[in-house]
Amino acid sequence: MTVWNLGSINADHVYALPHIPGPGETLAARSLTTGLGGKGANMSVACARAGGNIRHIGAVGPEGGWMVERLRSYGVDTGAIVTLDSPSGHAIIAVDDAAENMIIVYPGTNRQVPITHIDTQLAGARAGDLFLTQNETNHQVEAARSARIRGLRVAYAAAPFEAGAVRAILPFADLLVLNEVEAEQLRKATGQGPGSLGVADVIVTLGPEGCLWLRNHEEARFPSVRVTAVDTTGAGDTFTGYLLAGLDAGQAMPAAIDLATRAAALKVTRHGAADAIPARYEAEAFQEN
Where do the annotations place K(+) binding (predicted)? Predict the structure, then answer.
């Protein structure tokens, strides 16, 4: 089967800082690195690194060829990525000594993917495939509707969180993934808890506390692997990509969650985003510190 990911592709400019700056504060960065990022690209890389068959639907600008090549090098099918006459998306990321981060995102071509291109790509999907998207591209709802009509299972990662975007896509979603902050934001916006949204499966990630799986008004809690974090950027994306790869391969949800949790824990012990996502054999062998 195949996972079809309508997702963002960003150049991540990562600055190492002693602490996250406050309003009006100027800090000198200790270092600067540039790598592949964007929630969509991170999830595609994670899915591929987990052994999944992932086709990325997205767009870059004229200067974005290196990002497409980087995705391809990790095993992502990049045949559905188009090049547009606008700047690619990019992110300014500050990471401090406590592994906390602050991120500023410029959407660029991520918000300019033509709907005709998305429809053309999804026409090649098969019933039973998985469709994945996040809130960093345009045409999320139209694409989710198109995927559902074609018999795909629809997964939505509710980040960056926006209540209106989540509400709009919920009628087409089979799986919703969000963190505990986003779950509380959604509760305040809708008056409903994650388990009462009408979505078959909801997963709430809890950082070092693991995650919560909600299905049919029942819940199961899964512990995390204890690690010393150095960079939490992309941890949730790693979890989601691994989760989708496992489900697409026919794994039961608990098994898919277990490996996804291990991969995310290993990811936070490394600096970077997509380029730091572990391979499946590494996640399977990973043990607590």
Answer: 231, 233, 267, 270, 272
The answer to whether the annotation marks 40 as part of a ligand binding site is: yes
Instruction: Please state which CATH number belongs to domain 3-9+38-79+110-274.
Output: 3.40.1190.20
Whether 38 has a binding-site annotation, put simply, is yes
Which positions are annotated as active-site residues? Answer: 237
Q: How far from each other are the two terminal CA atoms of the chain, in whole angstroms?
A: 35
Q: What is the pLDDT of residues 27-63, one digit of tens each?
A: 999 999 999 999 999 999 999 999 999 999 999 999 9
**pLDDT, position 288:** 62
Per residue in 233-254, pLDDT tens? 899 999 999 999 999 999 999 9
Residue 182 marked as a ligand binder: no
pTM higher than the cut 0.85:
yes
- Residue 272's region, left for phi above 0, alpha for psi from -120 to 50, else beta, is left
CA distances to 41, 217, 237, 249 from 178, rounded to whole Å, are 17, 17, 10, 22
Domain ranges of the chain: 3-9+38-79+110-274
